């Protein structure tokens, strides 16, 4: 008899996010509330709000990307911004990795306020946009500095738009992270990575039922096995060049041994025990935009200190040693 058959309790109060926990104890992520976009074909003039299709104008210096360095969903856009050379066009606000009951806060900034938006909590921007908003206030969020409104917290579209809609402001020689000719293969690949890996670790970690946890665990490691094979004969997921698919896989891999293996019980094996995935992850880590945007201190303190249902003692593990990310990878 498997463990799943022996025990499948799913007490609602055991859930880290009760409203996002199904009757079988499975984690069901909330939809993204704000889905406007910044696009090249917005009919709005610079300085104006969105057009009637929710498209805001591309404007350097206008929008502020609010992130937590702990968050893998936000990390995508931080890496893309670096790779594409959009640092001057889109400013970055970094929240405290520790949330209190009021959510993400700007306590790392002087006076506890974001110097550009003038707010102390990200929830203020959410409520300024929708005063009835009741879901989790999440990062990443792209905020309009003119009105203080949230343009989007739709993180997958946000990162694709950095590639495809902000092209006129890319640095010379910036990579094409979402090449048109690869999209038919990339889209399903990224969807599998999302379902089984990026969100898969959360489905394992936030499950409150044994079966839900084991299903997520199995899907996660089955998918990692497939990706391990895929990376045997190619440097990156789509071949010789880095794409958005690599960005998305990296943000989970870099957190794997430090957090997911232990905190989310994804412990069939560590990342360091996969030959190709571990070398691939190190290869990316040692590439500009990847390792230099990783903050293991924020990552560890966020997960281990804010998920109090999973880690009630709040002890933050000391390891693993981050220096091993700098060891030679022998790829490419
Ligand atoms: N927007 C997505 C994904 C982004 C997301 O979950 N970000 C996390 C950090 S990794 C967050 O902001 N969580 C806030 C909270 O849990 O209250 C969602 O709503 O699930």
UniProtKB/TrEMBL annotation:
Region (Disordered): 1-57
Binding site for glutathione: 104, 136-139
Domain GST C-terminal span(s) in chain numbering: 179-303
InterPro entries to which the protein is assigned, alphabetical: Glutathione-S-Trfase_C-like, Glutathione-S-Trfase_C_sf, Glutathione_S-Trfase, Glutathione_S-Trfase_N, GST_Omega-like_C, GST_Omega/GSH, Thioredoxin-like_sf
Active site: 71 (nucleophile), 202 (proton donor/acceptor)
Record-linked Pfam families: GST_C_2, GST_N_2
Name of protein: Glutathione-dependent reductase
Organism annotation: Actinocatenispora rupis
Lineage: Bacteria, Bacillati, Actinomycetota, Actinomycetes, Micromonosporales
């Amino acid at each position: 008899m498997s463990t799943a058959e022996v025990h499948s309790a799913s007490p609602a109060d055991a859930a880290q996010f009760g409203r996002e926990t199904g009757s079988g104890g499975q984690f069901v992520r909330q939809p993204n509330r704000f889905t406007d976009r910044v696009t090249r074909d917005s009919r709005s003039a610079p300085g104006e709000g969105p057009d009637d299709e929710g498209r805001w104008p591309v404007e350097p210096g206008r929008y502020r990307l609010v992130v937590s360095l702990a968050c893998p969903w936000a990390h995508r856009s931080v890496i893309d911004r670096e790779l594409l050379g959009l640092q001057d066009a889109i400013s970055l606000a970094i929240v405290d990795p520790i949330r209190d009951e009021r959510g993400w806060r700007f306590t790392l900034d002087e006076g506890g306020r974001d110097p550009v938006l003038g707010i102390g909590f990200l929830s203020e921007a959410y409520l300024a946009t929708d005063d009835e908003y009741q879901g989790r206030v999440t990062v990443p969020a792209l905020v309009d500095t003119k009105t203080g409104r949230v343009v989007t917290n739709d993180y997958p579209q946000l990162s694709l738009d950095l590639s495809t809609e902000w092209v006129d402001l890319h640095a010379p020689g910036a990579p094409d992270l979402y090449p048109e000719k690869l999209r038919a293969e990339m889209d399903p690949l990224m969807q599998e990575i999302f379902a089984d890996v990026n969100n898969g670790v959360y489905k394992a970690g936030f499950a409150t039922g044994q079966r839900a946890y084991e299903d997520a665990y199995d899907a996660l490691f089955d998918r990692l096995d497939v990706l391990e094979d895929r990376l045997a004969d190619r440097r990156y997921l789509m071949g010789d060049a880095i794409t958005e698919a690599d960005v998305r896989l990296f943000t989970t891999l870099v957190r794997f041994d430090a957090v997911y293996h232990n905190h989310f019980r994804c412990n069939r094996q560590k990342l360091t025990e996969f030959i190709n995935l571990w070398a691939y992850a190190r290869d990316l880590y040692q590439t500009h935009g990847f390792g230099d945007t990783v903050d293991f201190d924020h990552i560890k303190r966020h997960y281990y200190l804010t998920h109090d249902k999973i880690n009630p003692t709040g002890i933050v593990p000391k390891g693993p040693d981050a220096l091993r990310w700098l060891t030679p990878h022998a790829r490419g």
